[in-house]
C-alpha cells in the first residue's frame, strides 16, 4: 500500500470507526485481487451467537454456504413490509432468468404496514455478474442494463403525489391522464430518464449480489438473496455504489416456513399488489439480552455481530460489537463494549409502530483481538486512547479516562438519536430493529439525523417466552434474575452522574 493511501486511510480513521476496520483489518487485502478465483464457495457453520446466547431455540446449527458467482435463477420475494430510508415502504418480487434477463416488481405503499398500495413498478433489464468484490468480501459485483420500466397507480392520492414530482410527460404518458390500475411505460431505452431521476429511482442495488444457502439440520434449505444497500441520503441515492446489503429477499421455493408474506408477494402482479395482513402490535419492551441473527455486513468493509442488553428499569444499556475481517465472522479484529443510558421518546410520525429514543454512552471498552489491531492501537500517543503502549491481544482497555480514542473515532461525551421497533418472527419470537446508520459513516447526533430505516433485526436470547407480549410477569425475571445487567453498569448507575456519551458508530 502506498504511503499516500495509508495517510488517507488514517485521516479517515479520525472521523469514523468503520475506517479503523479498514486499516486494522483488511490492510493486507483491500487492494489485492481476492485470493480465490472468481469461482469459489464458502462453507461455514453458524449458530447465532453460540457462545454468547445459550438458549434452546437458537441452538440449531445452521450450515451456510455462499457460491461465488451466485446462482440468481428463480423468484425472490420480501418476507415483510420493507422500510427504506426516507422512509419508503415497499415489497419486492424479483425474478432472474438463466438468460440474464430479470424482472423486478416493486410495490410501494403509503404506510409502514404495507396495507395501502400506492403504485407498483415493473422493471425489466439484464444483469451481468462481473467479479468477486474486493471491498465487500463474499459479494459479487454486477452491472445491469435497464430495458423498460412500467408503472401502475393504485390510488388517487398516489397519483397526485407523483404528479407533483414528475415532469409533465414521461415517455408518452401524462400522469394526470393516467387511469388507476392500468400499466404505463415510464422509461424505455430511448426516453424517460428524467422521469426515473425525478422519482429518485435507481436499481443500483443490482450492483452487489450475494446468495446464501442455509442448510438446516432437520433437512430444510433456505436461500436468501442479498442486494446492495440503499443510501440513507436521498440526494446520494442514484449515484450510490453499494458496499453493504439491504435485508435479504428469500427464494420463493426455499424460504422460511411459515411465511404468509412470501406467498402474497409471490402471487402478486403490478396490477394486483400484495396487501399485507395487519399484524398484532408488539409492545416495545427492550428488557433482556438481544443478539444478531447472523454475521452482519455493513457499508465500508464492516463485518460484525451485535449483542445488546437493556435494563428498562434503570434506563441502562450495554452493547457489545464484535468486529471481524471476513464475511463469515470467523477472524476477529476487535471487540467494543459500550455502556450508558437511554430514554424513550415519542412514536415516530411516519412509522407508526416505531419509537424514538435518545442514547447516551457513559463508558467504552475495547479489546484488540488480533496482532495488527493491537499494534495499531499501541501506536497512539499517551493520553489519547486508553493506557498508551499497553495494548495486548485479548486484554480489554477502558477508553473512558482518555475521553474516547480519536483513532477509533470515539469521542466522549456523545449522544445519539435513535429509532427502534419490534416485530415477531415466523415462530412468534420478538425481533428488535434499531435505526440504520447513515451510509456516509456520520453519526445521528442531531434529531434531524435520526434514522428513518432499520438495521437487520436482533433476536431475544431467551426465546421470547418472557417477552411481555406473552407474559408480563416473566419479563421481570429476565431483568432481575438472569444477570442481564452487569455490575459495571450498576456501578455506573450509582456513581455515573455526569453523563458523558459516546458516538456509537453502528
Ligand atoms: C461445502 O459443503 C458442501 C456440503 O457439505 C460440500 O459438498 C462442498 O464441497 C463444500 N464446499 C467447499 C468449498 O468446501
Ligand atoms: C505495545 O507496546 C509495548 C511497549 O512498547 C510492547 O511491550 C508491546 O509488546 C506492544 N504490543 C503490541 C501488541 O505490539
Ligand atoms: C436464568 O435464571 C433462571 C432462574 O433464576 C436460572 O435457572 C437460569 O440458570 C438462568 N440462566 C442464566 C443463563 O443465567
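-> sequence recovered:
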Amino acid at each position: 500500500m502506498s504511503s499516500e493511501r495509508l495517510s488517507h486511510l488514517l485521516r479517515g480513521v479520525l472521523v469514523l470507526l468503520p475506517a479503523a476496520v479498514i486499516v486494522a483489518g483488511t490492510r493486507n487485502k483491500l487492494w489485492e485481487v481476492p485470493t480465490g478465483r472468481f469461482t469459489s464457495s464458502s462453507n461455514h457453520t453458524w449458530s447465532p451467537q453460540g457462545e454468547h446466547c445459550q438458549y434452546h431455540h437458537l441452538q440449531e446449527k445452521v450450515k451456510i454456504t455462499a457460491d461465488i458467482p451466485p446462482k440468481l435463477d428463480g423468484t425472490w420475494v420480501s418476507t415483510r413490509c420493507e422500510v427504506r430510508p426516507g422512509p419508503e415502504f415497499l415489497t419486492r418480487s424479483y425474478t432472474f432468468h438463466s438468460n440474464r434477463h430479470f424482472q423486478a416488481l416493486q410495490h410501494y405503499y403509503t404506510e409502514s404496514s404495507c396495507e395501502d398500495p400506492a403504485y407498483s413498478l415493473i422493471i425489466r433489464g439484464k444483469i451481468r455478474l462481473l467479479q468477486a468484490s474486493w471491498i465487500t468480501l463474499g459479494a459479487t459485483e454486477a452491472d445491469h442494463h435497464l430495458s423498460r420500466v412500467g408503472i401502475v397507480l393504485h390510488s388517487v392520492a398516489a397519483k397526485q403525489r407523483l404528479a407533483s414530482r414528475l415532469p409533465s410527460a414521461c415517455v408518452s404518458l401524462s400522469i394526470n391522464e393516467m387511469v388507476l390500475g392500468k400499466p404505463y411505460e415510464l422509461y424505455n431505452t430511448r426516453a424517460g430518464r428524467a422521469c426515473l431521476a425525478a422519482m429518485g429511482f435507481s436499481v443500483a442495488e443490482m450492483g452487489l449480489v450475494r446468495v446464501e444457502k442455509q442448510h438446516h439440520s432437520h433437512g430444510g434449505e433456505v436461500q436468501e438473496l442479498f442486494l446492495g444497500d440503499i443510501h440513507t441520503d436521498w440526494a446520494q441515492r442514484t449515484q450510490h455504489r453499494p458496499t453493504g446489503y439491504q435485508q435479504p429477499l428469500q427464494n420463493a421455493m426455499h424460504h422460511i416456513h411459515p411465511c404468509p408474506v412470501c406467498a402474497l408477494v409471490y402471487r402478486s402482479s403490478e396490477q394486483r399488489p400484495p396487501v399485507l395482513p395487519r399484524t398484532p402490535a408488539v409492545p416495545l419492551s427492550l428488557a433482556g439480552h438481544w443478539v444478531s441473527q447472523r454475521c452482519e455486513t455493513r457499508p465500508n468493509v464492516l463485518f460484525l455481530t451485535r449483542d445488546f442488553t437493556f435494563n428498562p428499569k434503570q434506563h441502562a444499556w450495554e452493547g457489545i460489537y464484535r468486529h471481524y475481517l471476513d464475511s463469515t465472522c470467523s477472524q476477529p479484529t476487535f471487540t467494543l463494549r459500550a455502556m450508558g443510558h437511554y430514554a424513550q421518546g415519542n412514536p415516530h410520525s411516519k412509522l407508526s409502530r416505531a419509537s424514538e429514543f435518545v442514547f447516551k454512552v457513559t463508558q467504552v471498552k475495547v479489546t484488540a483481538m488480533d496482532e495488527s489491531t493491537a499494534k495499531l492501537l499501541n501506536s497512539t500517543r499517551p493520553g489519547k486512547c486508553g493506557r498508551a503502549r499497553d495494548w495486548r491481544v485479548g486484554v480489554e482497555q477502558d477508553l473512558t479516562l482518555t475521553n474516547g480514542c480519536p483513532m477509533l473515532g470515539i469521542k466522549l461525551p456523545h449522544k445519539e438519536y435513535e429509532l427502534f421497533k419490534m416485530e415477531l418472527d415466523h415462530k412468534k419470537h420478538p425481533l428488535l430493529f434499531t435505526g440504520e446508520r447513515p451510509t456516509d459513516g456520520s453519526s445521528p447526533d442531531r434529531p434531524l439525523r435520526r434514522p428513518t430505516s432499520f438495521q437487520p433485526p436482533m433476536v431475544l436470547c431467551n426465546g421470547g417466552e418472557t417477552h411481555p407480549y406473552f407474559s408480563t410477569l416473566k419479563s421481570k425475571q429476565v431483568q432481575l434474575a438472569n444477570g442481564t445487567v452487569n455490575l459495571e453498569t450498576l456501578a455506573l448507575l450509582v456513581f455515573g452522574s455526569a453523563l458523558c456519551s459516546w458516538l456509537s458508530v453502528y
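Residues 466 and 473 are 8 Å apart (CA to CA).
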